[in-house]
Specification:
Elements (H helix, E strand, L loop, with lengths): L5 H26 L1 H11 L6 E5 L5 H7 L4 E6 L2 H14 L4 E5 L12 E7 L8 H11 E12 L5 H14 L9 H10 L2 E14 H7 L4 H13 L11 E3 L2 E15 L1
Parallel strand pairs: 1-2, 1-4, 2-3, 4-5
Antiparallel strand pairs: 5-8, 6-8, 7-8
Length: 261
């Protein structure tokens, strides 16, 4: 894999999700509802909480938290996502939310500004996760909570490598999906104490997976063939299976809660 410079990676994120903003909104809101609700439940958010959502996308989770918190702020690199988040905010009539364009590696907030920081399915797009976790640690109050939800891969290095190669083929802005143990170790090494973890699993069709961020037809065909060949081996960790002509694969996600030490 050829590594991109951080600035190139961020431009790639903006490019991919500017093009995919509408399809992402159509396909991801309902599909990810279980992990959205798990984040809300495990956060134990209170009316006094000030919440920051990094990599907020179209604001699905930011707006859920805003309904229960004193204030919620969504931060994202992609203006097209923020536009859709503000549209949804207006529809809901929520006044305690702001959506800001910004970089999670250099957040425009003072130290100890938030009681909860959340991030849903954005972490695998972060080229410098340690820097971002350092920023999260900075803007959280002592004993503040990080609630991180993301799709996870295997802790087996060979399976993890194959899985992430497919993810990068589908989505060139993808950096890495982590195994659960590796993700927990990242949080611990960044100054957080793990308190809770919940793993969720579901099954989706290949067509759904391709519809969220639509790669070129030749890439779709290549990924599909790779998964069909993997049915007997599961070297991808996605447990692919065919039901007639329909190809299915499993997704695993984790919601982790960690307290700032």
């Amino acid at each position: 894999m050829t590594l991109m410079k951080p600035t190139e990676q961020k431009e790639q994120v903006r490019s991919v999700f500017t093009q995919a903003a509408d399809s992402y909104v159509r396909h991801k809101g309902e599909a990810d509802r279980a992990s959205h609700e798990a984040m809300l439940r495990l956060s134990r958010v209170q009316p006094s909480d000030r919440v920051l959502d990094i990599g907020c996308g179209p604001g699905f989770v930011t707006l859920l938290f805003a309904e229960r918190a004193q204030e919620a702020i969504g931060l994202d690199l992609t203006p097209a996502f923020l536009e859709r988040a503000r549209q949804r905010q207006e529809e809901l009539g929520l006044k305690n939310v702001r959506f800001l364009e910004g970089d999670a590696e250099q957040m425009p907030f003072e130290d100890s500004s938030f009681t909860i920081v959340i991030s849903h399915k954005a972490f695998h797009h972060f080229a410098n996760p340690r820097k971002i976790l350092s920023e999260v640690h900075r803007v959280l109050r002592p004993q503040g909570r990080l609630v991180l939800g993301d799709t996870i891969s295997s802790d087996d290095p060979s399976v993890n490598s194959v899985h992430n190669e497919l993810e990068r083929l589908r989505d060139p802005s993808h950096v890495k999906m982590y195994g659960l143990r590796e993700l927990q170790e990242l949080l611990t090494s960044a100054g957080f104490r793990m308190t809770e973890c919940e793993v969720l699993e579901d099954e989706r069709t290949f067509e759904w997976w391709m519809s969220v961020i639509t790669p070129p037809p030749e890439v779709i065909a290549r990924i599909r063939q790779t998964l069909i060949e993997d049915i007997a081996h599961n070297r991808t960790g996605l447990a692919p299976r065919l039901d007639g002509e329909t190809l299915w694969l499993k997704r695993r996600a984790a919601v982790l809660v960690a307290v700032r030490r």
